């Protein structure tokens, strides 16, 4: 295995699994093109951008296509956090918005999102990424309209489920299209911009939500939290037809196996694993943890099925990807990092609004330093990851640890009306660290993945991030709420204890990065783009 990593492989030329060996041998055999050979007249937008390394020609529209991908992916990620500050408005302004319905407005989105990530990536790989991207954006836009016009809590919960499904279908296409359209340092830059979008959308969501609720009032302001997606979605769909690359003619006639049994088993494993965590506060019985055991059983059945299915057909996930250290470690690192990163805004926004009675706008504004740091650092990180490799991620996670530690110290020592100002520096440091972690890890994790499997592989990274987010919010929230109960509502005590759990998860991500750097140096197989 060490020999496989000794020299970084262009993802398009990376060896595929055995059952596809004959296909790749036929399509990627190194043949010299004589000078007099006729020039390929296939339009750039129809050319397979990830075919075989040597035949790659840059799509002239690739940067415009990237902007469109980031618009679509951005609104999906924005809706992960923008609803947090709108929950109080929803509870007071929507009939039937019971505490259980409000919980499902959050958790239903997360469940549906995680469920469709890998199948969505597979559909894009098999049926065309542009097609699935447009379908995903269209479905998300329609679901957003239904959310905004929801007459009661039940309709809003259903609409949020549809939103989550659409997000799970759309998101893998973003990473797969970046993988398809870019190579080398350009790919690092593109993933850097995507990482900036992830960090900014997640952190800026509460601010955007606060602005909309302030502008349109508490009773109906929450509806505009969803309506804001409509113009963005419509513009994205129109531009997608113009600038996103269509499926190449050579690929249109190729048939793919959809592996329905594998998709069902994987979906059951994801839901069984996510459900007890996203419902940890509402579902008090310990019986819910049996679902984790069921998730392990479904996962084992999935692995056994995929190995059997791969002997003759094309599985939904090429398990051989996990033999590559860059991929397996990157997915694991993303999982534990998001378990530490995501709960920060969940408990911080809650403490500012419920504990210090900040308005939705002021609570959202507290996340701006993190968003600025993350956006700038992600762009830089994407450009220099090819030079520093996994060491850049180690440096980034150290900064996140320092920033989180600073947040804990500030809350413990300066909890009061001026807390938002005290948080500026530690959140800025944490944001810079996050920007140097998320996008470089995405780039390195997919660095050796064949472009043909980009959707499924990108979906797996997102599944890891969503599972990590659910586990992190449940773990941090459990400690946070327990501390509040025992201290009779003392947020100055509960918040540092909850964020201490976040600190432990980010520490695990740092350890994973250090192990990869050390092992890479010993074996001479350091991860690179």
From TrEMBL:
Domain Major facilitator superfamily (MFS) profile: 65-524
Chief place of localization: membrane
One Pfam family, short name: MFS_1
Transcription recorded as keyword: no
Compositionally biased intervals (Low complexity): 13-31
UniProt KW keywords: Membrane, Transmembrane, Transmembrane helix
Signal sequence region: none
Key word Methyltransferase present: no
Bilayer topology annotation: Multi-pass membrane protein
Residues spanning the membrane: 65-86, 101-120, 132-151, 157-178, 190-216, 222-244, 256-275, 287-305, 326-352, 358-380, 392-412, 418-438, 459-483, 495-519
Compositionally biased intervals (Basic and acidic residues): 1-10, 37-47
Chain positions covered by the region annotation Disordered: 1-58
Annotated compartments: Cell membrane
The name this protein goes by in its record: MFS transporter
């Amino acid at each position: 295995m060490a020999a496989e990593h000794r020299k970084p492989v262009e993802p398009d030329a990376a060896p595929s699994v055995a059952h596809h060996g004959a296909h790749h041998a036929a399509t990627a055999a190194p043949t010299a093109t004589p000078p007099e050979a006729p020039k390929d007249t296939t339009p750039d937008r129809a050319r397979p951008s990830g075919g075989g390394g040597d035949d790659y020609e840059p799509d002239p529209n690739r940067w415009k296509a990237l902007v469109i991908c980031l618009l679509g992916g951005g609104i999906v990620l924005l809706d992960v956090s923008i609803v947090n500050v709108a929950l109080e408005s929803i509870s007071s302004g929507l009939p039937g918005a019971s505490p259980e319905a409000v919980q499902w407005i959050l958790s239903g989105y997360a469940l549906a999102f995680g469920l469709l990530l890998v199948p969505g990536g597979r559909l894009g790989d098999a049926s065309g990424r542009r097609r699935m991207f447009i379908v995903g954006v269209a479905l998300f836009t329609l679901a957003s309209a239904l959310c905004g016009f929801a007459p009661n809590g039940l309709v809003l919960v259903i609409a949020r489920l549809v939103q989550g499904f659409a997000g799970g279908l759309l998101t893998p296409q973003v990473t797969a299209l970046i993988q398809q359209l870019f190579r080398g340092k350009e790919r690092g830059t593109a993933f850097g911009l995507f990482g900036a979008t992830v960090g900014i959308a997640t952190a800026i969501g509460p601010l955007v939500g606060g602005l909309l609720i302030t502008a349109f009032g508490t009773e109906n302001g929450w509806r505009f939290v969803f309506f804001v997606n409509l113009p963005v979605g419509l513009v994205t769909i129109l531009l997608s037809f113009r600038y996103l690359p269509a499926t190449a003619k050579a690929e249109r006639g190729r048939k793919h196996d959809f592996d329905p049994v594998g998709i069902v088993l994987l979906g059951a494993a994801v839901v069984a694993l996510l459900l007890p965590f996203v419902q940890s506060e509402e579902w008090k019985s310990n019986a819910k943890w049996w679902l984790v055991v069921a998730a392990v059983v479904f996962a084992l059945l999935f692995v056994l099925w995929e190995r059997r299915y791969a002997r003759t057909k094309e599985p939904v996930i090429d398990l051989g990807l996990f033999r590559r250290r860059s991929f397996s470690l990157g997915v694991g690192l993303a999982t534990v990092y998001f378990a530490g990163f995501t709960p920060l805004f969940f408990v911080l926004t809650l403490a500012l609004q419920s504990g210090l009675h900040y308005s939705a706008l002021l609570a959202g504004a507290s996340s701006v330093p993190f968003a600025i740091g993350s956006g700038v650092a992600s762009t830089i990180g994407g450009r220099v990851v090819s030079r520093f490799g996994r060491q850049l991620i180690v440096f980034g996670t150290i900064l996140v640890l320092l920033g989180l530690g600073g947040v804990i110290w500030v809350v413990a020592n300066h909890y009061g009306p001026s807390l938002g100002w005290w948080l500026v520096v530690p959140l800025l440091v944490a944001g810079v660290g996050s920007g140097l972690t998320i996008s470089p890890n995405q780039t390195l994790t997919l660095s050796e993945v064949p472009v043909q499997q980009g959707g499924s592989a990108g979906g797996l990274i997102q599944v890891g991030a969503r599972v990590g987010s659910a586990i992190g919010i449940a773990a941090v929230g459990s400690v946070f709420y327990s501390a509040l109960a025992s201290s009779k509502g003392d947020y100055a005590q509960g918040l540092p204890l909850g964020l201490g759990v976040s600190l432990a998860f980010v520490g695990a991500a740092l350890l994973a990065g250090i192990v990869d750097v050390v092992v890479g140096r010993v074996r001479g197989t350091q991860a690179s783009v």
